[in-house]
Design goal:
- The structure is a single chain.
- By secondary structure, the chain is of the alpha/beta class.
- It folds into two domains: 3-221, Spore Coat Polysaccharide Biosynthesis Protein SpsA, Chain A (Alpha-Beta Complex); 244-435, 3 Solenoid (UDP N-Acetylglucosamine Acyltransferase, domain 1).
- The chain contains eight helices and 35 strands.
- Strands 15-17-20-23-25-24-21-18 form an eight-stranded parallel β-barrel. It has a seven-stranded mixed β-sheet with strand order 5-4-1-6-10-7-11, sandwiched between helices.
- A hairpin with a 2-residue loop joins strand 2 and strand 3 (30-31).
- The structure holds uridine-diphosphate-N-acetylglucosamine (UD1) and calcium ion (CA).
- Uridine-diphosphate-N-acetylglucosamine (UD1) binds at residues 8-11, 51, 73, 76-79, 81-82, 100-102, 136-137, 150, 152, 166-169, 195-197, 223.
């Protein structure tokens, strides 16, 4: 099927009370409009056409990385009028799939069902059964069950108001039909708008039967008009992700207390404790255990790694069997080999740390190359920045760094060196030496502490 998608996104979104156009508000770390576009791209290979209103510039800037066509609807005169603004941008005929930029939970399988329903006559509407249908357009059917028209809530009589089947607004209709029907739409209705939904009555009037596809899960059609609905949609999205993870074999201590804002890929027997936020692309290997209150973004975590509570891990790579935290921070380009221990109040930035090395307490390691089996003592600082440039610290294999050491970069410490506690290392050290820079201890006898009179 030759499908072109139109996304309606001209509505102002006044009830969001925001400077940001409504469709740019995010669900799971991605704008609603991008959610809709990503779903659309699963059923079409043509560039989608986005119908925008006054916020066109902001939308185009936010989405400049995407291949899109933009149609302006200067005044919001209704859904039919909005679709009409997009028609001149069509290169092909075929089927037009009309989506809303503020309905981000739809699935591609629902769209495929709708496109299937549109095959016989070139027109189908996606509907849902709601316990409380108020506010929505109602699907009016004849005694044989054929759709006759869609009546908007504001135009409906009490009998029609009782209908529970609603119009989600999502439709598939052939371009040739739209070319005929859209110019005929009037705005003689309660809202004075050009209703796209009036196409149904036109179709039926010319003997075309309109297909319908009913959503199995009506939450897919939830539209966002305010931040209450935005929060609701976020929760539904997150519970979908959590359910998928559970079904794939991930243990979630509480599926309602995980947030995935991106793509999380998990190996076998991964255990994730409560209040963990994942963003961007994150990969967890087999047997990984993530403790409570962790924030992990754009990182790869190897097999059997344990991340204890309260760590922040960003753009890092952690080798297998390593142990991180509690309270550790791995910043961009922290690359840990296998069996590395990073303990509490340790910050690692742009550094390679070799197999079996440990940085267990209160340390800053930045712009460093650390070999294997190195022990970095508590309070060690790489002095990597001279105020203008960053410099490299190299600790070769089996170095022992005593507590409270400053490594003034650029500096290289040879394999097997022992650095005594409290040392400021300013010069390179050849392998296997002891290095210390320390004021000799002085003990004064007979000393009296001052006392208050
Ligand atoms: C519309 C449908 C209604 C359906 C409901 C589902 C019509 C006439 N009514 O209602 O049957 O139950 O959606 O939510 O189609 N938009 C524009 N330009 C406009 C008007 C709307 O781009 O001039 C966009 C909005 O940004 C939004 C979508 O179209 O994304 C729907 O608009 P909205 O005002 O929310 O829909 P209703 O008219 O309430
Ligand atoms: Ca709406």
């Amino acid at each position: 099927m030759d499908v072109t998608v139109i996304v309606l996104a001209a509505g102002q979104g006044k009830r969001m009370h925001s400077e940001l156009p409504k469709v740019l508000h995010e669900v799971a770390g991605k704008s609603m409009l991008e959610h809709v576009l990503d779903i659309a791209l699963q059923v079409t290979s043509h560039e989608p056409i986005v119908v925008h209103g006054h916020a066109g510039k902001q939308l185009q800037t936010a989405l400049e990385h995407r291949d899109l066509r933009w149609a302006e609807q200067a005044e919001q005169l209704g859904t039919g009028h909005a679709v009409a603004q997009a028609l001149p941008y069509f290169e092909t005929s075929g089927t037009v799939l009309i989506l809303y930029g503020d309905v981000p939970l739809l699935t591609a399988s629902a769209l495929r069902g709708l496109l299937e329903a549109a095959k016989p006559s070139g027109f189908a509407v996606l509907t849902a059964m709601l316990d409380d249908p108020s506010g929505y357009g109602r699907m009016v059917r004849d005694p044989d069950g054929n759709l006759t028209r869609i009546v908007e809530h504001k135009d409906a009589n009490p009998q029609e108001c009782a209908i529970r089947e609603i119009n989600t607004g999502i439709m598939a209709v052939s371009k040739s039909h739209l070319d005929v029907w859209l110019p005929q739409l009037g705005n003689n209705n309660a809202q004075g708008e050009y209703y796209l939904t009036d196409c149904v009555e036109m179709a039926v009037g010319t003997g075309i039967s309109v297909g319908t596809s009913v959503l199995d899960d009506h939450t897919e059609s939830i539209g966002v008009n305010d931040r209450v609905q935005l929060a609701e949609v976020e929760r539904i999205f997150q519970s979908r992700v959590a359910n998928r993870l559970l079904k794939e074999g991930v243990t979630l201590r509480d599926p309602s207390r995980i947030d995935v804002r991106g793509e999380l890929v998990c190996g076998r027997d991964v255990v994730i404790d409560v209040n963990v936020v994942f963003s961007g692309a994150v990969k967890l290997g087999d047997g990984v255990r993530i403790g409570p209150n962790n924030v992990i973004s754009e990182s790869v975590i190897g097999n059997n790694v344990e991340v204890l509570s309260n760590c922040v891990i960003e753009s890092a790579a952690v080798g297998h069997d390593s142990k991180i935290g509690p309270f550790a921070r791995l910043r961009p380009d922290a690359r840990l080999d296998s069996d590395v221990h990073i303990g509490n109040f340790v910050e690692i930035k742009k550094s390679d740390i070799g197999t079996g090395s440990k940085v267990n307490h209160l340390a800053y390691v930045g712009d460093a190359q650390i070999g294997r089996r190195v022990n970095v003592g508590a309070g060690t600082i790489t002095c990597n920045y001279d105020g203008a440039y960053k410099h490299l610290t190299v600790l070769e294999d089996d170095v022992f760094v005593g507590s409270d050491t400053q490594l003034v970069a650029p500096v290289r410490v040879g394999a097997g060196v022992t650095i005594a506690a409290g040392t400021t290392v300013t010069d390179d050290v050849a392998p296997d030496r002891l290095v210390l820079s320390r004021v000799r201890q002085k003990t004064v006898s007979g000393w009296r502490r001052p006392k208050k009179k």
